[in-house]
Amino acid sequence: MKNDADTIIERIEPLFKRVPRTMYHIQCVNNKYDQVYNFFFITQPQHKRPHSIPLHSVHTYDLGYLETVIKAIKQRTQLSIEFTGFMGQRWPVAQKEIQFKKRWDED
Length: 107
What we know:
Blueprint: H1 4-12, E1 22-31, E2 36-45, E3 51-58, H2 63-76, E4 81-84
Helix pairs in contact: 1-2
């Protein structure tokens, strides 16, 4: 079975087109109800609304495993990663806060 980080990187590469005046980032969402982590690729051309493309779902619901996936993604891409649904949680190894600010649309 392929590694989750490899799958995410493989799916990002054709989507990242390097269009001028376009912002790109990855969003990692903690789905507490299904106990899964969802990854999305967000593109936002200048003066337009953002577009979200689903990349992959990590079904191993463990923060330690997610931390290794995030580290592998950061080593292979320079895109910033936005975390949603992680308020008050810390990485198990680094002991840093995962999400600093609560989004306006979070419950």
